[in-house]
# Entry
Amino acid sequence: MGLYLFSFRVRQIETALVTTFGKATKDSEIKEPGWYFRWPAPIQRVYKFDSRMRDFEADLGETTTKGAVPIIVNTYVVWKIAEPLAFFNANEHGSVREVQRKLLSQISDTQNRIIGQHFFGEFVNSDPSQIKFPQIEQEMLNELQRAVSNANYGIEIKTLGIKQLKVSEDVSKDVFERMKAERSRRTEATVSQGNAQATKIKTEAD
# Structure
């Protein structure tokens, strides 16, 4: 009973925050595993947080590329609790659901801002060298990390990726028409070069 009232354990996968009469400071954070002493409630209370990586997948959302082409993207992030005190203060005493709600808003803003700086051809293109998915994902990650850091949610964003990309039927038709037109231009250019070379050879032979 004494151990239960006056001590607590922090596991390897946890961080903890000890509040005294409902208040906590930076010194109240516990990030190392082990046994710790405390005053019994209501003097002190211990809040424990899972410090492992968490996966969060945003809803499908429509945004517009730089060329005003609407696309639908599904973005995911991997995050973890980095600062227990900031997480406790910013998210209703450490509510994971609350921080995910805030992340959803931040991800939506980041998608709209970064994707709006890139053309559709950088997402879907018949030329693989023109596709810039890794670069776009890195830009989104950097932007989201800055936004989360400035908001001081007490979390750290480790990874961001675009899980799924969709386009409407009308956009798909336009994309395929543009791809066909590009292929036709390449074909015409190749045939034209071949005809010119053939004429040159015939002329030299004559």
Notes: The mean pLDDT is 88.
